[in-house]
Amino acid sequence: MSINVNPAQASTAQPIFYVLDEHDHAEGGSTMLGFWIYLMSDCLIFAILFATYGVLGSNYAAGPAPKDLFDLPLVAVNTSMLLLSSITYGFAMLSMERSRIAATQVWLAITGLFGLAFVGIELSEFRHMIHEGATPQRSAFLSSFFTLVGTHGLHVSFGLVWLTTLMVQVWRFGLIEANKRRLMCLSMFWHFLDVVWIGVFTFVYLLGMLR
Amino acid sequence: MSAETHSGHVAHDDHGMAHGEITLSGYLTGFFLSVVLTAVPFYLVMSGVLGDKQVTALVVMAFAAVQIVVHMIYFLHMNTTSEGGWTMMALIFTVVMVVIAMTGSLWVMHHLNINMMPTHEMGRMQ
């Protein structure tokens, strides 16, 4: 904080004050940046899990290898579920921009269904693997596989909880400023999970099948 | 402080939620690019048309890198100006951290594996 007096005017006019403090921000003004930084920290979690998988991914301990376990057509279906949920969330955001509550809710619901399908397919894949004896305890490869893919699946599951919560919020309070901000945060979260999935299907599934 | 330094802070950035333009064509472009960039790697691996596994792996990784950029631009609306450039700064920092963590881990552990004494030699020493 400093007080400056313009020397040229000092003798004739009122002193001029300059406030060097940060001015007040509108409510939620820094939310998007803060949420982006959260996503970046989440990105580091996934980086560590990818690195772990990269180090341990070929230690099968004489157990099943990716070729024995992975079903690429199923992974392709799963990938398309997540990609479709990304575009439908985009449509929800476009409806939100135009303040169409009903359309927003419908697109959010469709997004939720695609997300649910993704989690369902992944869980059935896990169930099938565990049924064949490919449990996380079987080898270092499987431990790191379940940790990486499971963490992503957990993120999607929590995204679904968040999505449902926001649908109730929009239903009760409409597309108020706070709800728009929350929907934009979830939008970033949802698209971010799709970005992480690109890494998963490339490094875990596709490159795993090539080994 | 002299009279010339008055303009200390005039134009503050609007810290609003302006996170790039959200348009239908943007989302559709991103979606169709993503479909192509996903379908091609799956096709390459499932059919094995390239023959060489090393080449296929490199091509698949290149497709993934491009698709991540496509998602960043068309779905996450990344640009250099949103939030006064701070989202881009955070992204660059994170990418640097990710690259260090990934390459460092793989490098160190790979060399540990190479330099590990084979178990049969260990048996002979006893």
SSE map:
The complex is a heterodimer of chains A (211) and B (126).
Chain A: H1 31-56, H2 66-69, H3 72-97, H4 101-131, H5 140-173, H6 177-210
Chain B: H1 24-47, H2 53-74, H3 86-115, H4 119-125
Helix pairs in contact in B: 1-2
Tell me what the structure shows.
The complex is a heterodimer of chains A (211) and B (126). With 211 residues, chain A is an all-alpha fold. Chain A has a single domain (31-210), classed as Cytochrome c oxidase, subunit III, four-helix bundle (Four Helix Bundle (Hemerythrin (Met), subunit A)). Helix content of chain A is 73%, strand content 0%. In chain A, helix 3 (72-97) packs antiparallel against helix 6 (177-210). Chain A is flat and about 90 Å long. Chain A starts with 30 loop residues before the first helix and ends with a helix. The model of chain A has no long low-confidence stretch (mean pLDDT 91). By secondary structure, chain B is mainly α. Chain B folds into two domains: 21-78; 81-119. Helix content of chain B is 66%, strand content 0%. Chain B has helices spanning 24-47, 53-74, 86-115, 119-125. In chain B, helix 1 packs antiparallel against helix 2. The relative contact order of chain B is 0.09. The chains are: A mainly alpha (211), B mainly alpha (126). The interface between A and B is large, with 59 and 52 residues.
